[in-house]
Amino acid sequence: MLILSDGRTHRVAAEATTAGDAVRLQLSDAPVNATMLPESVLYHVLRTGETTILDDASAEPMSATDPYVGEHRARSILCLPLRNGAKPMGALYLENNRIARGFSPGGIAVLKIMASQAAVSLENARLYRDVAESEAKMRRLVDANIIGFNVWDADGNILEANDVFLRMVGYGRDDLVAGRVRCVDLTAPEKHDDAIRARIELAETGRTKPFEMEYVRKDGGRVPVIVGFAASDANGRKGVAFVLDLTEQKQAEKKVRESEERYREVQAELAHANRVATMGQLAASIAHELSQPIASTVISAEAALRWLDREPADIDEASRALDSIVGGANRAADVLGRIRQLVRKAPRRKEPVDINEVIREIADLVQGEARKSGAQLETQLAEGLPFVEGDRVELQQVLLNLIINALEALNGIDGVRQVCISTTETEGACVLVTVRDSGPGFGPNGTEHAFTAFYTTKATGLGMGLSICRSIIDAHGGRLWATESSPRGAVIQFTVPQRPAVSSREAQSTDATDAD
Ligand code: ADP
């Protein structure tokens, strides 16, 4: 009986029985059990790796009580281990149930040689089977044409390739046979450095991590791929490559990029429209604000004329009046400049911004509107704040929206009408801006809905202000949120990350240098 063992299970691979001159050979693959042979003998041989000879099994202590020996009247037993070096592979079990001492020393010596030869042959057969199996698996993978596959040599020739690979690069099988498919022609010129890096990695480790490449097709077109190499010999002069076509993924990525771009454009347009609309709302009060410096300019101009008309002309007084004209005109030009900035459509910028300065400018702009609503606009700005990084106009827009919302909330309430804007530096290198009003607050669940686009409780509201503010602050890497104030009122707060590693003084001097 030939018993093969994989260390855990033991199976009978073949059984030969002789009776007279006839030999009956039976191949099988059945697990060993106690009805086939004396298991006590087999396990002893497998465990010790020693040949066991029992001259009369029924009389030997090792086997006398074995149920098989009793039942089959086994007399002489010879069990030889099959080993390939130190590796146990199974055993050869021989039994003579006619006579005791049935195995001669000469016969045993021959059998031992046979057993060691058999072990080597069995191991070889197993190795061949393993190789054949893994080759078959590989072949199935290649033929399945799910991913591109090729066999290359160190001279850059593609020796073998599956259909997927050939389709990817637009070559035919005739090109492959004629040796016209070559790595050097396939690699896009700008990717040659990557190809060289892959060669070095291949030489060092025998394989490469998958990396992105671009192949040049036979028709000159390009195909983006992800490719991985593995050497099939020790010095990396031959090997295989697995290639995955990335065209669809790249197109999908491009679409996502385009739609993100479009989304950003729409967002910017919306933000701009919101700014223009808000400025429209402020037009009356700004016009009123502007009329004051203009009126005082006219008065100063008339005064200057009078001082000059005198005999002798009073130059000192006239120049004081002219100074006041310059001051008034500058103030009006300033306000107009800010309005123009807010209404202008310009791409988003990333610049150092002094948030306190932004608040002062906006507070100036809405002062007239606050007065109109009978509200007091107050600022509590922390000194020495770091600069933040962002778009000045967008941050002005956020503040403008928040202040206008606060003023609108104050309309029609009894008691103190107050809006307070404060700034402070927070942990995590951010500047925190708080806009607090003494209005009715958001009401139950109001803080949840307020940021939803088109949510408004106002007759002429659009419901876009807060959601635009939030998207602007998000784009600045900050956070904007609302809470209720005690005993009443709304609090809107937002953070903007400070400009990395530049203090406000340094930033100022950098800006001055930039301006120079
Ligand atoms: P709109 O001002 O056009 O209504 P917003 O998005 O700016 O759009 O505001 C949405 C809603 O949030 C407002 O209609 C209002 O109900 C609420 N809200 C915003 N700011 C305040 C505030 N300071 N106090 C109370 N409610 C507010």
* Spatial strand order of the main sheet: 3-2-1-6-5-4
Give the CATH architecture of the largest domain: 2-Layer Sandwich
Radius of gyration: 46 Å
- What CATH calls the topology of the largest domain is Heat Shock Protein 90
Average pLDDT across residues? 89
Count of discrete alpha- or pi-helical segments spanning 4 or more residues? 14
- Please give the CATH class of the largest domain: Alpha Beta
How far apart are the termini? 99 Å
Structural class: alpha+beta
- The CATH superfamily of the largest domain is identified as Histidine kinase-like ATPase, C-terminal domain
| DSSP E strands, number | 18
Characterize the biggest β-sheet: 6 strands, antiparallel
Helix content: 40-55%
- Strand share of the residues? 15-25%
Write out the distinct hetero groups bound to the structure: adenosine-5'-diphosphate
